[in-house]
Amino acid sequence: MDKKQILEKFSQLVSIESVSTDSKRHKEILKAAEFIRKELIQLGCQVNLYQKDNCPPLIIGKYRPSFAPPSPKWLRRPSKATEGKAIGVYAHYDVQPEDPITKWKTPPFKLTVKNGKIYGRGTADDKGHLIQVLTSIKRLIEVDKLDNNIVCIFEGEEEISSKNFEELIKKDPSLKNIDAFYVVDMGMKAKNIPQIFYGLRGVIGFELKIKTSEIDLHSGVFGNRVLNPAQLAAELMSKMVDGQTHEIKIPGFYDDVKKTSKEEIELLLKSNSTLVSKVYPALDINGVVSGYTGEGFKTIIPAEALVKFSIRLVPHQDHKKIEKLVEKFVKNNLPKEVEYEFREPTGSNAFYTDFKNPFAQKTAEVFEDVFKNETLFNRSGGSVAAAEILQRVFEKPVILIGFSLPDDNIHAPNENFDEEMFWKGIVAIEKIFAQ
Fold it and tell me: Which of 40, 97, 266, 387 meets the CB 3.0–4.6 Å disulfide criterion with 45?
């Protein structure tokens, strides 16, 4: 399989506008799932698609050397006398919206190779990694060097909090037999500086609507007489988090936060990590909507205010418990006569695993062989719900890896994947699958 063929497959997948946040493009999600299903079947995988209602399908493709059909082209033996480990590998095929489209220098859904970069929405997050996985399997089959069982777990809801992932993976009992899971949705520290992530923060997204009247009111007539929902929202959030120290002031919030060990701090400092964004919780206002925001002035007291905010969690904090603490805090800090409504929060717990486990250490050796630099062990301030779910449900090691770079513009215009890291990443995954 030459580079031209690989890029053609990559181009076909990027051209599918599988934006999971946009219900109008649901057919594109299904189109992407069908494309991947066919690719897995061509590799000799047994493929199952799992869905709840009309959600994006979870694709599980299982490659077993003993069951793979013989192929004259690949020169495969009809069967293997023994099989190796069972390796699970996760990636996702849904992508973020392309907005703002005017900031793109290349068409977002047309793969463009330019100046050592592969441009297009989803190239780095996460279709590029998915193509790397498929390519690695195919290349190992072609040279008859894949003796391990490989189980591909490809999700279509990662960008919308993986809300059905846990329920869907439980539908496939064979996943219990996997020895270790690789989540291929992370990135390099820098070009040719590999890293393995052993920790992620969890996240909860909140949406709170505060309402004080049925309609906007004249500020000259009703000022000082009625409550202003925008001001109430501002006061509430200032009580919830200190804007200078970032301390979260919700009673009981820090009860389950554990102290980071000296050994781990030294490990993180080795990778030049910013500790405050890796090992501490955080609360951030993501957006506020209230009143008049057009040109000029409209002297009103708005009828309602909408606040969107998120909380990043650290290991040992339970998102369900934190959700209840937040709801109690809001109830206790808003005037009793004020109407408010919480949209059901979406949340996931933090992920943490032992960075000394044999799979992680062996992967570090592979990376050092491919990239010729020491592998760093790191934690991320971000969240990948699937990692925590896979670990909790199956109680097996989960190793987070990836080959994108910090300047690949993930979730932004001109998203790209560095060419050199793309091709080297394929080699690294091959070595992981073959070991």
Answer: 40
